[in-house]
């Protein structure tokens, strides 16, 4: 592998992208780092590209060519589904992230279900509908509990886990009413699965699949898994054996391999990160969803534990030379607690001054990834989103990582600071 420096353009603005940026910057091969659009934390360590539309394939490819970029890293799903990776690769520039056809694993739940069926991968039984009437009739026939999903990208919304038929019917109507735009024109109705959830991300070049460490997200807003679904309130890694047996883990890795192989056999090269969201049911792990990118906040606990040169690994995913030995793991545990703005996932105020991050990061093993932050007019750091900061701690024991993360949360302050107090408790037997 060459040792030449590579200038990198990273697309995205969340905690996931901040964690990717920190890891990329640690690579001896990282040259100049550019972010679009970035956030308060990312802007402090990379050059912010003003005015670049990160979801425009032509704009990104042109900008990257004009600036001698040697690697474009795509964080979120929207540019992937829009075909940004295709355009970048067509311009002869290496890219981390799947092309548009492969990104349909996230961009269309129906597409993903069909691939899973052909690959023989366990998932919830389902039917898909394009007209409201037959969808409602089916829901009435099957009864609750039942899960209603808008087919396309709905920014983390668009999944209704309905306990009653009325809730399910309301979800069906919401999808067909256009609440999720085109994403709801096709609706997937599936059986409800039960059990703990586990995420398994894998890196792949379309042939070789390298599983990353397991992690467990906490999606509900309130302690005890109560309240509405969010983009994720906290996460830890790895998931201990009393929750995920060696057998479960092998089954999840097998799922990732089968899906990549199935796509390859259909002429689709999946290169990038394939995120598998699993329910650990009494019959073994079953797929809830695939994402075509790193998870957020999973990345914030997986990458700090990963020993790898991320620039080399991402280039290898792009050019088909990925191998297992490029990635190894620390034995440490990682816990990340998300600090949110009061009101999230509903409406919330922005522009609150944030203090204490430096103090928090003085603690051993603590890194604070920015999610929804920006630099204010006077250069001060302010809140700019619902999920504001991902306070992450790495330590030799789970208990230590967890208590360090929470101690660090206490050192940070902004008006309306809100967080769950039970992140990771399930990992403690
Ligand atoms: P998804 O975006 O498909 O992962 O759905 C978001 C969340 O909804 C998941 O993390 C689960 O908590 C829940 N969910 C999705 N599908 C199902 C299902 N078939 N059964 C039970 N819960 C589900
Ligand atoms: N943590 C869930 C996701 O990234 O979609």
Give the tags.
429 residues, alpha+beta, Rossmann fold, Dna Ligase, domain 1, D-amino Acid Aminotransferase, Chain A, domain 1, 4 domains, eight-stranded antiparallel β-sheet, five-stranded parallel β-sheet, 13 helices, 30% helix, globular, binds adenosine monophosphate, binds glycine
Structure description:
The chain is an alpha+beta fold. The chain is 30% helix and 28% strand. The strands form six sheets. Strands 16-15-10-11-14-19-23-20 form an eight-stranded antiparallel β-sheet. Strands 3-2-1-4-5 form a five-stranded parallel β-sheet, with helices on both faces. A four-stranded antiparallel β-sheet has the order 6-9-7-8, sandwiched between helices. Helix 1 links the parallel strand 1 (6-12) and strand 2. Helix 2 (57-66) runs parallel beside helix 4 (84-90) and helix 6 packs across helix 9. The N and C termini lie far apart (44 Å). Glycine (GLY) is lined by residues 217, 232, 291, 295-296, 298.
How is the topology of this model organized?
Layout: E1 6-12, H1 15-25, E2 30-37, E3 47-48, H2 57-66, E4 71-74, H3 77-82, H4 84-90, E5 95-96, H5 100-107, H6 109-119, E6 126-129, H7 132-142, E7 146-150, E8 159-162, H8 165-176, E9 187-190, E10 197-204, E11 209-217, E12 220-222, E13 226-229, E14 234-237, H9 246-265, E15 272-281, E16 284-291, H10 299-302, E17 306-307, H11 310-319, E18 328-329, E19 333-340, H12 357-362, E20 366-370, E21 373-375, E22 381-383, E23 387-395, H13 398-411
Parallel strand pairs: 1-2, 1-4, 2-3, 4-5
Antiparallel strand pairs: 6-9, 7-8, 7-9, 10-11, 10-15, 11-14, 12-13, 14-19, 15-16, 17-18, 19-23, 20-23, 21-22
Helix pairs in contact: 2-4, 5-6, 6-9, 7-8
Bound molecules: adenosine monophosphate (AMP) and glycine (GLY).
């Amino acid at each position: 592998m060459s040792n030449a420096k590579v200038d990198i353009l990273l697309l995205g603005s969340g905690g996931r992208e901040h964690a990717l940026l920190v890891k990329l910057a640690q690579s001896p091969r990282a040259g100049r780092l550019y972010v679009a659009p970035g956030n308060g934390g990312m802007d402090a360590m990379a050059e912010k590209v003003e005015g670049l539309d990160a979801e425009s394939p032509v704009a990104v490819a042109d900008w990257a060519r004009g600036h001698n970029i040697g690697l474009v890293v795509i964080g979120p799903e929207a540019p992937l589904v829009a075909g940004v990776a295709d355009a970048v690769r067509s311009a002869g520039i290496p890219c981390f992230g799947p092309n548009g056809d492969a990104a349909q694993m996230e961009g269309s739940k129906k597409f993903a279900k069909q691939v899973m069926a052909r690959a023989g991968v366990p998932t919830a039984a389902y039917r898909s509908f394009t007209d409201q009437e037959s969808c409602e009739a089916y829901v009435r026939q099957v009864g609750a509990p039942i899960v209603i999903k808008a087919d396309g990208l709905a920014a983390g919304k668009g999944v209704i886990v309905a306990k009653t038929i009325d809730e399910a019917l309301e979800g069906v109507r919401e999808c067909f009413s256009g609440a999720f735009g085109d994403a709801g024109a096709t609706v997937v109705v599936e059986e409800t699965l039960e059990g703990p959830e586990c995420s398994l991300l894998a890196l792949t070049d379309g042939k070789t699949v390298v599983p990353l460490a397991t992690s467990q997200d906490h999606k509900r807003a309130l302690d005890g898994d109560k309240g509405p679904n969010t983009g994720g309130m906290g996460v830890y890694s790895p998931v201990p054996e009393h929750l995920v047996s060696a057998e479960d883990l092998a089954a999840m890795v097998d799922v990732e391999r089968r899906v990549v192989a199935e796509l390859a056999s259909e002429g689709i090269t999946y290169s990038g990160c394939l995120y598998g969201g699993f329910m650990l049911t009494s019959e073994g792990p079953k797929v809830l969803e695939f994402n075509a990118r790193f998870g957020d906040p999973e990345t914030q606990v997986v990458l700090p534990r990963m020993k790898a040169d991320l620039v080399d690994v991402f280039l290898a995913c792009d050019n088909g030379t990925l191998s297992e030995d490029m990635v190894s793991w620390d034995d440490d545990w990682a816990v990340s607690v998300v600090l949110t703005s009061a009101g999230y996932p509903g409406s919330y105020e922005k522009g609150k001054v944030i203090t204490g991050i430096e103090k928090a990061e003085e603690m051993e093993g603590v890194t604070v990834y920015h999610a929804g932050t920006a630099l204010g007019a006077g250069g001060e750091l302010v809140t700019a989103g619902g999920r504001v900061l991902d306070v992450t701690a790495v330590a030799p024991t789970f208990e230590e990582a967890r208590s360090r993360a929470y101690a660090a949360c206490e050192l940070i302050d902004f008006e309306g600071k809100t967080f769950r107090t039970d992140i990771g408790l399930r990992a403690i037997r």
